[in-house]
Write a structure and sequence with these properties.
Strand content: 5-15%
Helix content: 55-70%
Order of helices and strands: HHHHHHHHEHEHEHEHEHHH
Shape: globular
Distance between the termini: 55 Å
Strand order of the largest sheet: 2-1-3-4-5
Structural class: alpha/beta
């Protein structure tokens, strides 16, 4: 995880360190010229607390931090895009296109920064050994859940998902200790999700979560958790861009690694399925 991501996500920070990090993010142009004592004074902390934060960020001392921070913001903040409101009514069509493209690029990059490869590989192994995978999602995350169900058909896996949201609770009742459940939820905190989580855990099922980096009920209860890019506000936004891109990217990674385990078998199976069911191709063959 790079320096800016560490400051933004604040994993393992104390309350004081979080306050300093927030100040640095909000006053980045000012911070690059500030002395250690100046930053401590501005954040109502002590030089030792600031120095401790620098070491937690992977820097030897405050001067090294300030140098690397200046370099990072020069390359990363030259053209800021607001993930919640990437355009407004005064922007040109070209600006809208540029900003949405930038969100895609930055989301993939940020997701990579948060990706724990050991957990990803473990999740893939668990899903590979599962006979049936129960898939859950709420809100816009439900679309990512549907995409996962569709993809793994091509690798001879069965994903069970309830199209009617209220039926998800009902399905969770049938969880057993052999059940592997994949739950996708940006907030990980809705009442519907909490009830499903409690049912899965009470019956001994294995729960895999895909959620934001923020502390949530899903992150706390999941056996394994993969983190989405977490730069969107849950409510105050134009639309779902970054979180959907991020969850779809993680789903694609899981699918690709599952596919690779029996690459040629899965490839042949996918080609045969496509030949059997692609009406456009069958029609063109019959017309020859």
């Amino acid at each position: 995880m790079n320096l800016l991501a560490k400051l933004e996500y604040q994993i393992g920070f104390s309350d004081l360190e979080k306050e300093i990090a927030e100040y640095i993010i909000l006053n980045r142009d000012k911070v690059v010229t500030m002395k250690l004592t100046d930053l401590a004074k501005a954040t109502y902390t002590s030089p030792s607390t600031v120095s401790r934060l620098c070491r937690k960020l992977g820097e030897k001392n405050y001067n090294d931090f300030r140098l690397h921070f200046a370099t990072a913001i020069q390359s990363n903040y030259s053209h800021d895009v607001d993930f919640n409101k990437p355009f407004d009514d005064k922007d040109s069509s070209q600006t809208v296109v540029h900003n949405i493209g930038k969100i895609y690029k930055e989301t993939i990059s940020a997701t990579d920064e948060l990706l724990d490869l050991e957990i990803l590989y473990k999740v893939v192994d668990i899903l590979n050994n599962a006979d049936v995978i129960d898939v859950y999602g709420s809100g816009d995350s439900f679309l990512s859940a549907l995409m996962f169900q569709h993809k793994i058909i091509y690798i001879n896996k069965v994903a069970s998902i309830s199209i009617i949201p209220t039926d998800q609770n009902q399905k969770a009742l049938y969880t057993t200790k052999d059940t592997v459940a994949l739950m996708i939820s940006y907030s990980g905190e809705t009442e519907e999700i909490k009830k499903i989580i409690d049912l899965i855990k009470s019956k001994g099922g294995t729960l895999i979560g895909i959620t934001s980096i923020d502390q949530s009920y899903l992150r706390e209860k999941a056996d394994y958790c993969l983190s989405m890019c977490s730069k969107e506000n849950i409510v105050n936004k134009i639309g779902v861009y970054s979180s959907k891109i991020s969850s779809d990217y993680i789903i694609d990674l899981i699918y690709s690694l599952l596919f690779q385990k029996k690459y040629y078998d899965h490839f042949i199976n996918k080609v045969q399925l496509s030949r059997s069911h692609d009406e456009r191709r069958n029609k063109s063959i019959n017309e020859r």
